[in-house]
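Please fill in the sequence for the structure shown.

STRUCTURE ENCODING:
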């Protein structure tokens, strides 16, 4: 299968279409697949999904959301860490899509702020 190619306007429309489907974001410690698997849980304060407001800009295939803050639960033991690898997007209880994020490990309860971005790349 070939990579998507298209005009910047097409890429922007595609990104806006994807982000218009949902605004509830999640973090996953592994590939969520098509079901939203591997979502983080637990902690105090407890991990929870958060909402963003998506905004298009220049017709470049990039849509940016408002900054969000997640509570990262602590590792299950001192010898392990929590490493979110993907950010997911939901509409209510329906999982829509996910993108990989930079692997950052958290050995204990933490807060992380993310400015979400969805990019439809030029092939």
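FILLED IN BY: designer on duty
SEQUENCE:
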């Amino acid at each position: 299968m070939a990579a998507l190619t298209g005009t910047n306007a097409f890429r922007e429309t595609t990104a806006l279409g994807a982000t218009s489907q949902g605004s509830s974001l999640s973090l996953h410690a592994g590939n969520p697949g098509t079901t939203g698997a591997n979502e983080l849980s637990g902690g105090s304060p407890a991990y929870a999904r958060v909402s963003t407001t998506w905004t298009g800009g220049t017709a470049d295939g990039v849509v940016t959301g408002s900054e969000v803050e997640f509570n990262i639960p602590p590792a299950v033991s001192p010898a392990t860490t929590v490493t979110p690898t993907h950010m997911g997007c939901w509409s209510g209880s329906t999982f829509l899509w996910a993108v990989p994020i930079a692997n950052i490990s958290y050995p204990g309860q933490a807060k992380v702020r993310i400015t979400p971005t969805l990019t439809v790349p030029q092939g």
